[in-house]
Automatic annotation (TrEMBL):
This is MFS transporter. Residues 294-516 form the Major facilitator superfamily (MFS) profile domain. It is a multi-pass membrane protein. The keyword Signal does not apply. The keyword Cell membrane applies. Keywords: Cell membrane, Membrane, Transmembrane, Transmembrane helix.
Length: 516
């Protein structure tokens, strides 16, 4: 017999809701803080590894091509994972995906210092490790992003403020990771520095798994939404059973959908899953293509991010090495970009709702791109380079809050997992090519000429939105639409609850598609 709705709700909340009822602690801000801190420690680890790995390869091989190949492998796997992970996140839930992927990444990254200590380290081993890490990083990053609307609804904050806070914590993690990363790599070496990356990923997974997930499951709006979902499930089950009886002959017993699926052969089940997977991805593409603003602001950042990867993963480390500086100088370059970006992002978080989006976006892009490449191509003094990079970093801090808000305002709630994953895949799609371009072109054309060419390309892409009218329409919609969207978020943020518990009765396989 099916479990009653009240029993389901009691079983879902029993043992977890009490921990969020402390009279002196606002659990909304505790959960928001845990989500942000998880981003900080995870991104700190990623920033540290992005500094340690290229520096380690350059010092071992003295070859920018090898450095570009290692970076391209990791980013290539990340792009593939971004393309395919959307339906999986919608089915299993973002918190579950985030925790699992971060733990797997931590385990593989820990292999590098262990193999180095055992004198078994090699570049092919490193390529295998970064391939796995790239595969896990895509779903993990997307899962954390998809949690943004649920966190906004839970903490009762505006979506722009949540995306601004996420951007601020991202820059904070980048600043800390860059500043400390250069020192850590200089003190203990790149391989052992990756142990800190592994530890950071485990800490981030713990915050999501033990704080954010239980709080979202215990939230009253989620429980209310679960009741509605369960009632709909019962109605659907009754309808499905009735249709099944009419389809069967009188002497043949009616089987449930779960029993029919269980009777299928394994290849048949696998084929059904693959077809459903492809259909979900196709639905995501349809939504993305139907919104020109999203499509345009996915293509332009795809090119600029490609150029950024060439700079961070190959050109900047090679420039520092050619100038006979140490890893601390490389960390200083990255920190001079991320610290002002943190300041800019913080200011944007406070005043973003009052700023005109389009001119702020264009100015921010102009500051962060071309000048940085130009001064390094001219071998300007280090203080000049740091100043130019810092100004660009400040401008870049205003970009992510704008892009994040535009994305969440224009993507249908139930398609966010698919569309955000596909948009992210487009933005990241050219990044592996950026690593290869940076490696091969600096090897063939020289470092300075490569910096000049890529900087000029950055300038052209930055100015494109000015001349394309369709990309001007990024201002915020009416407030009523935003309120309705937040209300829908609260109702659709129950996927993990429903998928992990209600479906244990095999009454439906649709309840896990709109999870929190």
């Amino acid at each position: 017999m099916k479990e009653s709705i009240s029993n389901k709700t009691h079983r879902l909340t029993n043992g977890i809701s009490w921990s969020w009822q402390h009279p002196h602690i606002d659990h909304r801000y505790m959960v928001l803080g845990a989500w942000l801190c998880s981003d900080i420690v995870s991104l700190f680890g990623s920033t540290l590894s992005s500094l340690a790995v290229p520096w380690m390869v350059l010092n071992l091989t003295h070859n920018t091509v090898a450095t570009g190949i290692v970076s391209a492998v990791q980013l290539g796997m990340l792009v593939v994972a971004n393309l395919l992970c959307g339906p999986l996140i919608d089915k299993l839930g973002p918190t579950r995906i985030s925790v699992t992927c971060d733990c797997i990444s931590a385990a593989f990254i820990a292999l590098v210092p262990v193999m180095w200590f055992a004198h078994l380290f090699s570049i092919p081993l490193l390529i295998g490790v970064v391939a796995v890490v790239g595969t896990m990083r895509g779903p993990s990053n997307n899962a954390k992003d998809i949690l943004s609307p649920s966190i906004a609804a839970f903490s009762k904050q505006a979506m722009e403020r949540i995306t601004g806070l996420a951007s601020t914590t991202s820059h904070l993690a980048g600043t800390i990771g860059s500043a400390l990363g250069g020192v850590i790599v200089g003190l203990i070496g790149g391989p052992y520095a990756l142990a800190f990356t592994s530890l950071a990923l485990l800490c981030g997974a713990g915050m999501i798994g033990f704080i954010v997930r239980p709080a979202l499951l215990a939230d009253s709006s989620i429980v209310a939404s679960l009741k509605k979902t369960a009632q709909a499930d019962e109605t659907d089950d009754a309808s499905s059973a009735m249709q099944s009886r009419h389809m069967k002959s009188p002497d043949q017993p009616a089987n449930s959908r779960a029993e029919q699926t269980h009777s299928m052969t394994l290849p048949h089940q696998l084929g059904l899953h693959i077809r459903a997977y492809i259909r979900n991805i196709g639905d995501g593409w349809k939504v993305l293509i139907a919104v020109p603003v999203l499509l345009g602001y996915a293509l332009i950042p795809a090119v600029t991010n490609m150029l950024d990867v060439a700079w961070t993963d190959v050109l900047a480390p090679a420039w520092v090495l050619n100038q006979h500086h140490g890893s601390a100088s490389l960390g200083l370059l990255f920190a001079s970009l991320s610290l002002p970006a943190l300041v800019g992002s913080t200011i944007a978080t406070i005043i973003a709702e009052r700023l005109p989006r389009f001119p702020v976006m264009v100015i921010g892009y102009l500051l962060v791109g071309f000048p940085r490449y130009l001064v390094m191509a001219l071998n300007a003094p280090m203080p000049v380079i740091l100043t130019v990079i810092a100004i660009g970093g400040f401008g870049s801090g205003f970009l992510n809050p704008i892009f994040g808000a535009v994305m969440y305002e224009r993507i249908p709630v139930k398609a966010r997992g698919k569309v955000i994953s596909l948009t992210s895949a487009m933005i990241w799609g050219l990044m592996p090519l950026g690593s290869l371009i940076g490696g091969f072109s600096s090897h063939l054309l020289g470092l300075n000429l490569t910096l000049a060419i890529l900087g000029s390309t950055y300038l052209v892409m930055t100015l494109l939105p000015v001349f394309i009218p369709a990309l001007h329409h990024i201002e915020r919609p009416e407030r009523g639409a935003l309120v309705a969207d937040i209300a829908e978020d609260a109702q659709t943020a129950t996927a993990e609850v429903a998928d992990s518990r209600v479906t244990n009765n095999s009454v439906t396989n649709n309840i896990g598609t709109d999870e929190s």
